[in-house]
Amino acid sequence: MSAATTRSLLPGLGVSPVLLAIAGCALLVLPQLVVIITSIDPSPAAIFPPKGISFEWYANAFTRPAFREALLLSVIIATVTAAIATTIGTMAAVLVVRHRFVGRRALIAALQLPMLIPEVMLGLGFLILFSNVGMRATLFNIMLAHVVITMPFALRVIIANLQTVSVSIEEAAQVLGAGPITSFVRVTLPVIQSGVVSALIFSFIVSFDNFTVTAFLVTGRGTLPIEIYAYIRTESDPTIAAISTLLIAVSIVGILAIERILGIERLSRVEGTPL
Amino acid sequence: MTPAASGARGAVTLDSVVISYAAERVVHGVSLAVAPGEFVCLLGPSGCGKTTTLRAIAGLAPVESGTIAIDGVVANTMPPHLRGIGMVFQDLALFPHMTVYRNIAFGLTLRGVDGAAAQKQIRDMLALLRLDGLENRLPRQLSGGQQQRVALARSLVVNPSVLLLDEPFAALDRKLREEMRREIRQLQRQLGITAVFVTHDQEEALTMADRVVVMNKGVIEQVGTPSEVYEAPANRFVMGFVGFSNVLRTDAPAAGNDIDHCLIAGTLCQLGTRSIGTRSDRATEVAIRPERAWIAGVADDADAINRVPGTVRGVAYEGAMLTFDIVLADGQQVLVREQNAGRSKHSSRMAGECVEIAWYPDDAVRLH
Amino acid sequence: MPVKLSARLSLAAPALVLLALLALALSSLVASSFATGSAPWYAHYRKFLGEDVYVAYIVRSFRVAAWTTLFAVTIGYAIAYVMTRVPRTLRRLIVMVLVLQFFSVSITRIYSIILLLGNNGAVNRALLGSGVIDAPLRLIYNELGVVIGLVNAALPFAVFPILSVLERIPSSLREAAYTLGARRGTTFWHVTLPLSVPGIAASVVIVFLFSLGAFATPLLLGGGFVDLISVFSYEQAINFSNYGFAAAGAIVSTLLGLVLVYLFTVLVDRRVAAT
Questions:
Q1: Does residue C131 belong to the interface with chain B, where contact is any CB pair within 8 Å?
Q2: pLDDT per residue as tens digits for the range B21-80
Q3: How far is CA B308 from CA B249, B267, B272, B356, B362, in A?
Q4: Nearest-CA distance from A163 to chain B in Å?
Q5: Which of A129, A153, B286, C60 could form a disulfide with B364 if both were Cys (CB 3.0 to 4.6 A apart)?
Q6: B87 contacts in A (CB within 8 Å)?
């Protein structure tokens, strides 16, 4: 109440920041709105505004085998990647949050390195490495690279979550007779459950979304972003708008899920400040 | 320490215990014998090593040298759960994802106690700590006092011989804290369990403990009953910590070899029997508690009372008490705390008034 | 109790394997840039830096990154500033939009900008329809389009570092300035802005490195006219299997970017220390 009163007594925001902020938000929101509207446009030229309502592009998206297979591939890669990256990230987070040792800060910085290196360098580096050692299993190569890229995201989420959990509950479990593993499984893990779920969602999205590194490693059939790219280059009908709309819907569901589990503001703080 | 006492259930013995954290020594050779059934408070400012000492007894901090024995058995490297201890943490450390019942059951399950036996023990504990009806609540659905009692129940249900408490009342308000002090003390007597309690609150230590252990910078400064520590502090640190806040400079009396008198701001004063340091030397300072000095009236004319003139500089109104800030002729400051007795002759004292400060010689400690 | 070294090692082991993999990929990249067969070891670098065509990639990349940083940080500042002063619900909505932006699939996000700003896009059709212009504006397939796309992608990275700094400035400082007679503009330029310099600096560094490394946006929104260094590396590696030359280009631009960022942070630190 007092905060609101204080605010009203102070001078307002001013016109220019409000206009700039509105322009910025428009730049974020308008493209998404145009995509959603275009996806129900019956004309194949994807010309705005639409002349009617049609769901044929959704049908096209679902019936084209290329997209179905790409989606399946993306989901498989992202699921496996998320599971591995979250497991490794959780283990490393427990180490750096719960133990004090020489080189701890250096390790934390090193583990987040992949977030700072341009993806083109990572993609090219992995391409050269895999071709040097003769690794030709594309799917495995992509997953390996994805785990390297996504682990820092999972790590950061878990570190942020683990830091809010007092060490004393683990000590209490220890005093009552729990060994390190029992204590972790029965006390720590249930308490950081929300962080683990968020880390899973987060690393799934980062992997699912990845275009650059995948583009360097892919041979033959690609993941969904790769197939979308290939389609945009040759076709101009709104099939991609239909897929985009579906992906936007899935993203919104994912965000609402994280919002419920962890609180989006906390997550935004994690992602906004690499290092 | 007698061998019989040190071997009995509930005895805790520390012998020259040294503890280091990250290459820094935080406890320098602490020796202490806690008798079975005794309630001992470790008292000291933050960073004095009291919590580290407690954690070493619990097995949560490694002992660098010396020995810790519990129930007569050396426990230096014994894991915490085999030491027969229960611990209540400063933040209580209740498992936030478990109900009250499951919090209490946790230690029993790990000890292989379950089924009807476990159920009965948990029911008894719930009844003992007046937690009946709350067993299905989560910790966050409880009040501060209820959370305290769950933490106690969880540590007591495994039937420890020693209860360790690390500033467990830190988060409670004053009224609840006083209630919990009484409750824990009563429970401890009822169960006949040994208790080691860490606090930085002088009043808490004095009201609860059988014996108070005053610590500073990793060493024990004094061990004694509350009244010993309060009335006869062993050194300057303890003196300051238990409230001797007036320390006055003294000069030698005219008869230079008279060690039972001194001059304070030019006035001859008698010295009492309490002292810190070598008594044969001349006292260079005396220490007096604000509440043991008073502003002299006409009736206080006995020879056995010291009276030193001064000027009131200010009065702090604290409700039940009044604290007078008085300056002596030589500029030294003395605080005098008196009951705010309403019709008291002093309640109307004003800044600038000339008064006389009075005290009994035996209430002052001479420092050499 | 002291935790055994083996316990720590087993927690760290999987993460260390990932780090080793990263190190291998990067060292393969560096090694290949020096692997020149019979030519001198620096041949790739000499060729890259010696010909105007290739140097142009670098110049263009840094120019685009600089414009993107300028716009994204300015707009991002405005959004963050507005966020600290609006009611909670509106603030949460803006956070949601920013997080959705971060979580949406980048390739479809770029596609949506084509739908909005293309020759047949919503903006051009709206302007043509209302008679403001006679011929469609060329908004994409040029540097402007790439910058717009990168600002769109970088806004979440720009907003959050600034927001977290702005939130830590107590409103009492503004109130104090106000009671001393400072107007809104004066308060902003003399109190709020100087105190938010660390957030702006963090934001500049993140957005600049992000834009410099961006790949999918210039690939699609440049339309082949605005090839940045990332596109150069990709084409050299994938179309011509010229890994060493691709690596040399990526390394030169990344090192140059890091040197610039380092000089920038030193400069900012000195200014902050001086005040």
A1: no
A2: 877 889 999 999 999 999 999 999 998 999 999 999 999 888 999 999 999 899 998 988
A3: 13, 6, 16, 5, 16
A4: 15
A5: B286
A6: 171-172, 175
